[in-house]
Amino acid sequence: xxxxxxxxxxxxxxxxxxxxxxxxxxxxxxxxxxxxxxxxxxxxxxxxxxxxxxxxxxxxxxxxxxxxxxxxxxxxxxxxxxxxxxxxxxxxxxxxxxxxxxxxxxxxxxxxxxxxxxxxxxxxxxxxxxxxxxxxxxxxxxxxxxxxxxxxxxxxxxxxxxxxxxxxxxxxxxxxxxxxxxxxxxxxxxxxxxxxxxxxxxxxxxxxxxxxxxxxxxxxxxxxxxxxxxxxxxxxxxxxxxxxxxxxxxxxxxxxxxxxxxxxxxxxxxxxxxxxxxxxxxxxxxxxxxxxxxxxxxxxxxxxxxxxxxxxxxxxxxxxxxxxxxxxxxxxxxxxxxxxxxxxxxxxxxxxxxxxxxxxxxxxxxxxxxxxxxxxxxxxxxxxxxxxxxxxxxxxxxxxxxxxxxxxxxxxxxxxxxxxxxxxxxxxxxxxxxxxxxxxxxxxxxxxxxxxxxxxxxxxxxxxxxxxxxxxxxxxxxxxxxxxxxxxxxxxxxxxxxxxxxxxxxxxxxxxxxxxxxxxxxxxxxxxxxxxxxxxxxxxxxxxxxxxxxxxxxxxxxxxxxxxxxxxxxxxxxxxxxxxxxxxxxxxxxxxxxxxxxxxxxxxxxxxxxxxxxxxxxxxxxxxxxxxxxxxxxxxxxxxxxxxxxxxxxxxxxxxxxxxxxxxxxxxxxxxxxxxxxxxxxxxxxxxxxxxxxxxxxxxxxxxxxxxxxxxxxxxxxxxxxxxxxxxxxxx
Length: 732
Fold this sequence. Notes:
Elements: E1 10-15, E2 23-26, E3 38-43, E4 46-53, E5 71-72, H1 81-93, H2 98-104, H3 108-112, E6 122-125, H4 129-135, H5 141-152, E7 158-159, H6 160-167, H7 171-179, E8 183-186, H8 201-212, E9 218-224, H9 230-243, E10 247-251, H10 258-269, E11 273-276, H11 282-293, E12 299-302, E13 314-320, H12 337-348, E14 351-356, H13 361-368, E15 373-377, E16 388-393, H14 405-417, E17 420-425, E18 433-436, E19 453-455, E20 460-462, E21 469-471, E22 484-487, H15 491-501, E23 507-510, H16 520-529, E24 535-538, E25 551-557, H17 570-582, E26 593-598, H18 604-610, H19 614-628, E27 635-643, H20 648-662, E28 669-671, E29 675-682, E30 685-694, H21 697-712, E31 721-726
Parallel strand pairs: 9-14, 9-15, 10-12, 10-13, 11-12, 13-14, 16-26, 17-24, 17-25, 23-24, 25-26
Antiparallel strand pairs: 1-2, 1-4, 3-4, 3-5, 6-7, 6-8, 18-22, 19-20, 20-21, 27-30, 27-31, 28-30, 29-30
Helix pairs in contact: 1-12, 5-7, 8-9, 17-18, 20-21
């Protein structure tokens, strides 16, 4: 017999599944878990982990029998009230299933395991090693190995996970050693903080302004030219926050930037730093998450996902290189970490600092309107000045393997003077086009609408979109001709060309192919800083955040290829990229030179780059965007869909368009016709997209809320993968 479940025992659960709706369950008697707690519930034919969320105030009572919650996993929620509020806001703002949003904020092991583990403990010997060994039975082999490993570490406490390399699984051995009083748990003792360089007047003013706002929310945009010492401002502000007993969250756009920044924070502040990014093993990420949650880490430093790190004592949030598109998640839950960081600072009532030499135009406009506090660092720290930027006309100077005569000559002069050069080309591999000179056959990816890139050293052709690899060809597979040639240049080709021209030079290539192994990038960068490299060839990995005192020349190859892209952000990205990579030159006592090879000498963007004139560039770009109602003067959302069949994704988006056009919530919103994505086929699936545009945010949000709810119930929605991309950073 069905009976209505008591209202106070009915709860709403956000199941970790790609579903927007919440599901109601009945709690076992006597249990009242808090919102945000994980629960295990029956779902379909199996079981799922879900998160308790507040039940809607107007929820209807249930007449039928509800399924019961199988288990309440957490005695206390893993998310505190403000982080839980941030996650709910993020799910709503970015129109993403809430259960998946909650799940994405947890380390992988906490998504899979039913209980949060105890914090990782560190150990040290409680007596001299000789005394420990004498106290142990001769057959206590594992305990002896663990004791010797601890002795080898000296006074530095060691985690059990680190001891496994020397002593194997030693958890039981450590417990027995502790029972005997031969080892003891220990917390790493902070090292003494070190003073940094004396701040100039602009840096000091920025630190004081930020510190004055320590007790309330405020958003600061620190615009500092490359080499102006933005990191010193971060360090000084972080130090003051930590002295007040608060934690500091630092976000960087690239994993490559974390090692040197972690080193600087640890060295200067003498405090524990928790590191969080996708390149770490699951165990390390979980330990960092727990250290942040329990307040044992004073600094939490990571890439975009670290914006959801739990903070017991939040005091300051820093977003370095805030303009960088890497802060936008491009798959699944498509949030923008910079914007989430600002919202989090508001909820936590703490200041947030955005830093960049080339701010995003959205942030620049917010500062110009007074929504953000603009702090200027107009001078390089120390005695160095900005590099001289010169344009090399590739219409006048023909290129050989991507190199012009003026650039080759400038490299030669640096080698003669014992200085270093950085040659920047944002394309991996040897050549992006493999082609037959007889029949014009080209090496295409079988799964994408893209060409295969030749990686000559590996003897492979590779798709940089889906990862497909094929053996390099010596003869045309279509006509059999051996007239195979390679068009375009990548880092391998430039490296090879430079090796031919400068056989005695020490050349180092840094891209994702050479730095994939853990620790490889740090080792390579150390060589550059130690002066063991004459010519550095690299991609965007080198474009920001690195300090190379010996580099006095930066050559930029092929950066203007996207100048007339359909993407309205192309000029902004070009200005940011060239300014950032050019900023690696002349950061010590020798002047720097940037040579940019281009066909577009007369383009206003090029002139602004040459003159280091961000303000003039920004004003012109903002005027153009105002005319088109593009961000920051309009709001965009992109509904994306993909399917195995060619027409299914487009048919689905036509349904989305029809529902949007019919919705009363769609007033003041322009809904475009669905179109194939610029790269329609990727990884064997066909992709399409639909652009929605509005001058104001509220109408756009109302439309998305109405349409997403209606579309999820349509049968066709289960035959496609679809997502809503709010505030897309590109239209591809």
